[in-house]
Amino acid sequence: MYKVQVHRKKQSFAWILASGLALSVLVTGCGQQSAAPQPAVSEQAGKSDQAQKQDQTFELNVGYGQSLGTQLGFIAEYEGYFKEQNLKVNFVPFASTADGLNGLQAGKIDVGVSFGTAGPLTFISQGSDFSIIGGHLSGGSPVYAKKENQDQFKTIEGFRGKKVGTLRLYTGDIVFRSALSQAGIDWKKDIELIEFKNNSMLLEAIKSGKVDVGVGSPGTLYEAEEGGLVAVTWSNDLQPDHVCCRIVAKTGDVKEKREAFKRFLKAIIKAERDKEKDPKVTIDASRPHIRLDDKIMEKSIIEPHMLNHSDPNKKEIVKMWENMNDIGYIKEGKDIDITKYIDTSLYKEAVEELIASEPDEPFFQKVKERFNQQNIG
Questions:
Q1: pLDDT given for residue 180 in this prediction
Q2: Of 172-181, 270-279, 285-294, where does mean pLDDT reach its minimum?
Q3: What CATH number does the domain located at 142-238 have?
Q4: Which of 61, 193, 222, 269: CA 20 to 30 A from 69?
Q5: Distances (CA, A) of 32 to 26, 36, 48
Q6: What's the fold here for domain 56-137+245-375?
Q7: What is the pTM of this model?
Q8: Rounded CA gap, 254 and 260, in Å?
């Protein structure tokens, strides 16, 4: 760094006085010609802390199962709700629940939306520090068989003695095993259970006769019916109101990126409102991401058994955890307090902020009532 040396010389009092008078005249003259511009007040300085916070832009990488997509996420993007929240969302597809949750664990994505409930709970039991912060889908898992065999499965007793295909880590698998257990059918002894890695392998096994019936994943109805299969029952029929895809993130990220996740939930809630008003908006929103014919998409993602609800539904998550323990599905971490891995506070704040911004919107009031019923007490 260079230092500038200043040499002061003795100056006469008269010289200093003269210089001062000259400077005074110069300044006064400038002031008379044009007023010096006043510094503008910063726009940010005039805003509240909340408004300044809202001006911040956040970015999230959002993972989803490619066979199902993320209906509410796609709608939120399509309707501009992410943009409204100053939130940039990058969608990342995964071939399976395991792939998606491993991606979340590795930091490849910030949040997962369509990897079921059983999958995240299993990962948590094995040591993953995940937090469930919201919901995306309830119900929606079909149980498939060949059309000529469908009459065999009119009741749950029809599954006894059969070869049954399932997708491990998928919610429909847990719901099915729990339903068998509650009906007095031991899934370890009274059926032959064969696990498959993905839905395509499962459907092929049913078509070829390798298994008699199979518990599929949501969003596959068209593909199954094209292959000559039919849905003989649905997970919702076996266990009404069960949760499926939950919104899940790493606990550390939830703490560090709290504002971003809250904005994500606000956009998702608005998307749920739009889907309730017009389910077919899902097709328009999904078209850029799921490149299928509209008829195929309508059959797959606007199926009445697939219920897109954004609420975390803590009570049903706990119920599923208990079911997984009861049927012997959980091998590790049986004594975990699963409620510590369910964070409902973000969703609660998101709803409250939406109500504050639109107090006359009846849907937000309904969402608040549903939250209280499904998460409190």
A1: 97
A2: 285-294
A3: 3.40.190.10
A4: 193
A5: 10, 10, 38
A6: D-Maltodextrin-Binding Protein; domain 2 (3.40.190)
A7: 0.84
A8: 9
